Predict the structure.
Amino acid sequence: MSKRAIIIVAVLSLVAVGCSGGSEAVLSLGKGARFVPQVVDALTNVGMSPSITLDSSGEPAISYLGFNSVPEEGEIPEARAIDKPLVPGVFMAHAAAGRWSLAPITELDEALVDEGSDGKQTPVPNASTAATTDPQGIVHVAWIDKQGVNYSAEAGGRFAPEVVTKGGNISGLSIAADDGGGVWVSYLKNGAVVSAANIGGAWAEEVAAKTAPCGKDCGNSRTATTTLDGQPVIAFTDGRGATVAAFDGTTWNTEALPGGGGLALGASSTKDGPLVSYVSSDGQVTVAEYLGSSWKTETAGTTTVDPSPMLTTGVAEDADGVRYATWYDSKSDSIKLAVNGGAGYKMVSTPETGGGAMPSIVAAEAGAWIAWYDHVNENLQAGFYGEQDPALAVAAPEVAAPVVPAAPASPAAPTSTEPTGPTEPPAGGGGGASKAVTLTIESPAGSVATGFDKTTLSAPADTPIQIQFKNSDPGVPHNVEILTADPLQDPTAESLFNGETITGPADITYDVPPLEPGKYFYRCIVHPTTMTGTLTVK
């Protein structure tokens, strides 16, 4: 759980209303393949169990869960802004026309929470979502609450929930659609792998395989559903190994996948057949491809074998045959991505995914979208990796990055958007302090959503700068980085100073080398779309 402090409801509402007229930002990947992250939803505890798919326009759509944050003693309970779906609930985030829109699938659903003796509500342990899109572009969503499995298709931006099955001992949800528009919902229920389909207007369950009941370890028992020749293929695990159950039109046939272990299952379809991703018992992130009579495996990477609901994997293939595998790595507490263009999987940089877990992936045109849950800041985030230049959506107005003019050319060498540590002179050290101008900036409690206390700063040219940075956001890491422009809008942006990241409450003094006249962009590198500002040097 995040330890961030909470902002008073009235302040959140004023911020939301005050920003509602803001301009829409469109982010650019520029030339060359790169990964660009963004915050999708950031108020209260939102983003658990994200499942990403593409809508009829080829834009990303994410189903996810939202809950009230559990405040620490003395903190003010956080609340959703008046223009956001209310928690607890199941939500859908759509990207369109350069921004994210958030819609409720079912909101204020008490079946998603358990209430303790102290009155605090916590998420139901097995609660989850799963989303898919059929060939007609209709988005289908399923979710688990403590009453059972539910389903809805999106029609005109609205959802009409219906019950698939009732029961409390259900976990491992997944969903897939076949080429004919048939929808298959799979899950583990009372020691069985169950496939449910809507037949004649009613949901019918069928046992695909028997498995051991998950008991208290349901978070690690999964299914991952895809299709082959119009029939469902279900990969499943009860924590002992990965197995595939395939329906041939008459009976279900099962086959164990190679490698043992089989944690964190993911699956998708390609033009040639199913792909299944999982973590084997030796920590290999494995992608298994069905070749018609057997399964061929490749290693996409490695991770720590740490069974947890946060550990998920995903695999997808784009129209050019490029494959993408993603997973959560508990050692670095971040999202990993490997790409296979035909010569084996190669790791790519995924900046600013620290604290990210539960990744879900979908292939797009010449790239892939990943959605994940930032369990540190309790946010829903997404990122695109690819060569082309799609319009990347930004979150709701209060988290939109400002459009900042590019600064004059600088002699500093280009750097990536990943944290690289302070440049010379080092942060917190003193060279040139006697002639330096002093600037102050603070990240208040809740600044993940509301930003720095100052969004404009000014300083004289050719003069050392001391930035006295105060992080007043308890338990949340922040820093100050200065660049020639916003790298999410200008791929040629250069990082000129990258201050040490500190976790609040804490203070630090950054020593920044003299800057030439011009306008510069500053941000928190951990929260690059919400915590931004402009530094004018004259």
Confidence is low (pLDDT under 50) at residues 1-31, 390-434. The longest helix spans residues 9-19.
